[in-house]
# Entry
Amino acid sequence: MPEFFIRRLSRWQAEQQRGPFADMFVEAYEGAAGEEFRDRQDFLRRFEDDVQQPAFDMVVAEGPQPMGCAYGFRVHRSGHWWTGIGGGLPSDLEELTASGQVFVIVELMVLPSYRRTGVATRLQEQLLVRTDAARAIALVAPDDAPAGAAYRSWSWEDLGAVGAGSRSSALHVWTRPLD
# Structure
């Protein structure tokens, strides 16, 4: 396992480093050839909105170079984040979001050369350690088997797919209580 440390960023620090995070996004997800610019621009647009959310929190893993990052925030059912998800959320999750008791991991990315080394595990643990929300959620594309396997190994529960929205055609909701 490589040596690395986890560093928490303030909202201001995250905004100041948005370009390198967009570059990391492109490298981590290795999209379709020729689509890198569009993927980067889409990430920057989403990140600009996400960093402004209440209770935004971000952690980065660094060693000799950046290895990955994770960020998220508390969500409210009436907030902009849910509008792109569509229907189909379980009623208990809807109730918790209405009271602001859900923290969503919006992004958890690790560069390919550092995958399966414990970086993602430490990132999600450190991201969630400071929140006092009752539940954490993450949305994962159904065809992202490695992400699903990671959440399963961390004892998250797959609640199944939720309806289509602007963020994706269908997403799996992974959740776990926060104690």
